[in-house]
Amino acid sequence: MSEGCSDEDERHHAPLCSILQSLGEEFFELGRFTESFQSNLSPALLQLAGNTQCHRDVQSLDLLAQRLNALSHYVLTIGRLLPQDWQVNSHHALKNITLSDLKYRLKGAPMPENLDRESGELELF
Fold it and tell me: N or C terminus: fewer CB in 10 A for the chain?
C-alpha cells in the first residue's frame, strides 16, 4: 500500500493495523469516560428524572457509551484482521487534530514533556 511514495512520505507511514488499534483504544477510553460521567452524575440526574428532556439526555449518554464501545470492538477487530505490512500515510489526517495528547496517542508515540500547546487544546476550568 505504500508503493510509489517518496522517501519523505515514507517517514510518515504507519501500519494500518496500528492506526486502527489506536483508534479502537481511543473509542474504548471515550466509552469508559462516558460511562464514568454517567455514573458520577447519577445522583443529580435522579433529581431531574421528571424532566422529559433530561431523561432523554440521560438515555443519550447511555447510547453514546454503547456506541463507542461497539465502535471500539469493530475497529480493533478489523485492525487484527489486516496484514501487518499494510501501511498508510496518516500525517495529513493527524495535522487536523488539535489536541496534542490525542494526536500523540493516535501516532502511538509518547507525548513530550515540554510540549507547546496548540490552539484548540483542552482547557480544564
Answer: C
Grid cell at residue 36? 464514568
Q: Map out the domains of the chain as residue ranges.
A: 13-107
Enumerate residues 6+ apart whose C-beta is below 8 A from 83. Answer: 17
Distance from chain centroid for Cα 99: 11
State pTM to two decimals.
0.71
Alpha-carbon distance of 6 to 1, in angstroms, equals 13
- Hunting for cell 494526536 — which residue is that? 103
Q: CA-CA distances (angstroms) from residue 63 to 52, 66, 69, 75, 112?
A: 17, 5, 10, 18, 35
Q: Collapse the DSSP code of 88 into the 3-class scheme (helix H, G, I; strand E, B; otherwise coil) and give the result.
A: strand
For cell 489486516, the residue is 82
Three-state DSSP class for residue 13: strand
